[in-house]
Amino acid sequence: MDKPKTIIEKIWQKHIVHQEEGRPDLLYIDLHLVHEVTSPQAFEGLRLNGRKVRRPDLTYATMDHNVPTKNRDSMKDEIAKKQMQTLKENCDAFGIPLADMQHPDQGIVHVIGPQLGLTQPGKTIVCGDSHTSTHGAFGALAFGIGTSEVEHVLATQSIWQEKPKTLNVHVEGDLGPGVTAKDLILAIIAKFGVRFGTGHVMEYTGEAIRNLSMEGRMTVCNMSIEAGARAGLISPDETTVNFLRGKEYVPDGEAFDQLADSWLALATDEGAEYDHRVVIHADEIEPQVSWGTNPGMCVPVSGKTPDLTQVEYKEDVARALDYMGLEENQPITSINIDHVFIGSCTNSRLSDLQKAASIVAGKKVSENVRAIVVPGSFSIKLQAEKEGLDTIFKEAGFEWREAGCSMCLAMNDDVVPPGGRCASTSNRNFEGRQGNGARTHLVSPEMAAAAAIEGHFVDVRNYTSVPS
Amino acid sequence: MQALQEHEGLVYPLNRTNVDTDQIIPKQFLKRIERTGFGQFLFYHWRYDDDGLKRQDFSLNDPAYDGASILVAGENFGCGSSREHAPWALLDYGFQVVIAPSFADIFYNNALKNGILPIQMEKDQVDAWLAQAQQSELVLKVVLEEQSITDRTGKKISFEIPSYHKKKLLNGWDDIALTLHHEEKIVAFEKQ
């Protein structure tokens, strides 16, 4: 009998095009997602060398990073406009399908891949974006690449990759009520640090992971990169299969059943070994709030900012506190916020919006707070409107926007002003991420919603009943 | 890609850990569709204040480091976003070599694709160079072929780099051209 294998090894082996001693492996890529920011120079490189896109049929493009989330017909930013126009011209010239700003399938690239069923278990998926790890939720090997690699994949449909080490992140027990996938991944990064995954592909296992919806699994895998990992994934199961059934790019009938069987067979074998393993106990995790300038600088909502006498990298912590305008030993619930952003490839899916809406229903956003909701895709926006979520948000005082990356990285007009403080459902709290001088606190959609109402952080578990 | 055989240059010490690519090149400069001209925006918000004036408290603005071409930094350099604009900005500014105890995976690859040599070095040695370059002028000479770094006193330190990365840098090889030597195998894979 074969040695038990992890899903990572299984996918890897199935995709080796060429292998030789002392070199990385040449891996075939099943799906290449493209967006406007990291692709223009890659297409330019193809043109300069007279090369074509090898498999436009395995390539799919959308516009998300730069797109305005309101007044799309009268876009003012000429440079951004040109970048999007360039993507359109490149897709036309090279025959690549494109969901542009007016297209019904438009949305954040990591939201629409799964939504359309382009993302499937066992696939190798790349995109010029570090949050490509999101697609690992389906048991795909999905990782972010740079623009030179985008050009390489466009030209050859393959990529040179060093075989990664494997890391099992095992989550014992289940999450308590009001504690979400976002809290879980933030707690993992807070516990093990922002570089514990470097050089590894992580597989998340355990009861809490199994009990997560696909949306929750995407939130977890999305932030694998914030732990330094090349990719993060979860073995496919019935939850995965049920999510994908009926999606546009997935076959139906008997063909689907066969495909589903092959997906389930990818799951990590009993007894397979990883290079490293870490364990975290889900039942000990509280709702999390980041206080600093990287995602590992995070504490439970009942906690405080660090005590400078108790930390290892004192200078970095002091710098982070200074940037954030916080004192040491400051209780998290004492931090007042003035912005709330519900959106991003981490937390902009329908269930995220439903949960946030359930918190704000019938309440009003604090008068000092500007709050916006940016659905992850046009289709999610429509569905949310069908359910009346837009009305709930708007009546509470939230702005309801069009789909895009928006205030997660503030490339468009959705910017937190200097010194502004934002409770954000996004993935990065780096200096200036949401605007020059802006201060970001990473939280779950529920925590962001409650902070919007109260004007400061509160423990959402005591705030109101949370839907299960 | 430009080949890189050896490089001698002034060290700029950036004594910070987890320097993310958002700091290396902030997002407002990612809208350009060219590969060039990013150097002026390198570490933009660390170098300039809200009025576009140079910040006195950021050491890259110290004339002592004018012309620096070797960046020495703390752990996990280049974490975060996959933006290749980060190595483009470093290179365009004049940095040819980056030395740190560890690098984020995507940045490491992106640097190599652009002819920047990322050198992973033990933390103690990095800390020593950081301290030295903060106190006085530190010039290092990197010879890729023999995988060595030498200071002006003649003290020589060796470093590790995977042999295929070394070969590509030494020759300035284009990855795509290399891969296309294996095109039959790609075709065969697709027929499976």
UniProtKB/TrEMBL annotation, chain A:
Keywords: 4Fe-4S, Amino-acid biosynthesis, Branched-chain amino acid biosynthesis, Iron, Iron-sulfur, Leucine biosynthesis, Lyase, Metal-binding. Its cofactor is [4Fe-4S] cluster. [4Fe-4S] cluster binds at residues 345, 405, 408. Residues 9-455 form the Aconitase/3-isopropylmalate dehydratase large subunit alpha/beta/alpha domain. CDD domains: IPMI. InterPro entries: 3-IsopropMal_deHydase_lsu, Acnase/IPM_dHydase_lsu_aba_1/3, Acoase/IPM_deHydtase_lsu_aba, Aconitase_4Fe-4S_BS, Aconitase_4Fe-4S_dom, IPM_dehydratase_rel_enz, IPMI_cat. Binds 1 [4Fe-4S] cluster per subunit. Pfam families: Aconitase (PF00330). Pathway: Amino-acid biosynthesis; L-leucine biosynthesis; L-leucine from 3-methyl-2-oxobutanoate: step 2/4. It catalyses: (2R,3S)-3-isopropylmalate = (2S)-2-isopropylmalate; citrate = D-threo-isocitrate. PROSITE patterns: ACONITASE_1 (PS00450), ACONITASE_2 (PS01244). GO terms for molecular function: 3-isopropylmalate dehydratase activity; 4 iron, 4 sulfur cluster binding; aconitate hydratase activity; metal ion binding. GO terms for biological process: L-leucine biosynthetic process. Gene3D superfamilies: Aconitase, domain 3. Heterodimer of LeuC and LeuD. Catalyzes the isomerization between 2-isopropylmalate and 3-isopropylmalate, via the formation of 2-isopropylmaleate. This is 3-isopropylmalate dehydratase large subunit. It comes from Oceanobacillus jordanicus. The gene is leuC.
TrEMBL record, chain B:
InterPro entries: 3-IsopropMal_deHydase_ssu, Aconitase/3IPM_dehydase_swvl, AconitaseA/IPMdHydase_ssu_swvl, IPMI_Swivel, LeuD. GO terms for biological process: L-leucine biosynthetic process. Keywords: Amino-acid biosynthesis, Branched-chain amino acid biosynthesis, Leucine biosynthesis, Lyase. GO terms for molecular function: 3-isopropylmalate dehydratase activity. Catalyzes the isomerization between 2-isopropylmalate and 3-isopropylmalate, via the formation of 2-isopropylmaleate. NCBIfam families: leuD, PRK01641.1. Belongs to the LeuD family. LeuD type 1 subfamily. This is 3-isopropylmalate dehydratase small subunit. It comes from Oceanobacillus jordanicus. The gene is leuD.
